[in-house]
Amino acid sequence: MNSNTGEKKVKLSKIIIFCVTIILAVLIVSFTVGKEFYEGKSDSMFSFGAVHFAGYLFFLLMPVEAAFVYYLSFYEESKLIAIALGTAFVAQLVDYLIGYSFSLKFIHNFVGEKRLIKAEKHIRKYGNLTIFIFNLFPLSSPVIALVAGMLKYKLRDLIVFSLMGLILKYVILSLIF
């Protein structure tokens, strides 16, 4: 097999993976927020939790901060922050375990080599500060959790600094909005 055929297979697999993730994101939103919208119901905590959890998985990109701000008009800040922290924590734990368990080639097909190298560089250079900053701001913290798993980074540090960044982010968002 020549390298051109191999490159075509890699491109095709990336396209398929991209399409599957888009379909998953659309299905999650459709069966939660979309269903409630079409039925004329107010948005539920379950729909927020589902969207928020999915948004913290490394292979789905969803505007979780925007969802949080939107749901603030329906629910008490403390309950929303608790659900946001719980779902983000579980999703990032899943990301970490995937990075820890799966082969590098498998993960490259999902994320892309450039993003992985960039995330790895940040973690190796700044360590816990990277994890904190990426969770504090609307940056790609799920990819950081994935790469932390690939690097066999200390799970305790990932948990502590992720939660610190997430708590601060959601408290600030609830105070502003």
Fold blueprint:
Layout: H1 3-38, H2 45-55, H3 64-72, H4 77-101, H5 104-111, H6 113-126, H7 128-136, H8 141-150, H9 155-176
Helix pairs in contact: 1-2, 2-3, 2-4, 4-8, 4-9, 6-7, 6-8, 7-9
Instruction: Enumerate how many helices there are, as a single number.
Output: 9
Cα Rg: 17 Å
Which percent range fits the helix content? over 70%
Largest sheet: none
Beta strands, count: 0
**Helical/strand content category:** mainly alpha
Which overall shape is indicated by the principal axes computed on the Cα atoms? flat
Order of helices and strands: HHHHHHHHH
Mean pLDDT: 85
Domain VTT: 76-176
Keywords: Membrane, Transmembrane, Transmembrane helix
Protein name: VTT domain-containing protein
Transmembrane segments: 12-33, 53-73, 80-102, 129-151, 158-176
Describe this structure in words.
Residues 76-176 form the VTT domain. Keywords: Membrane, Transmembrane, Transmembrane helix. It comes from Maribellus comscasis. With 177 residues, the protein is mostly helical. It has one domain (3-176). The chain has nine helices and no strands. It has helices at residues 3-38, 45-55, 64-72, 77-101, 104-111, 113-126, 128-136, 141-150, 155-176. α2 (45-55) packs parallel to α4 (77-101), α4 packs parallel to α8 and α4 (77-101) packs antiparallel against α9 (155-176). The longest helix has 36 residues, at 3-38.
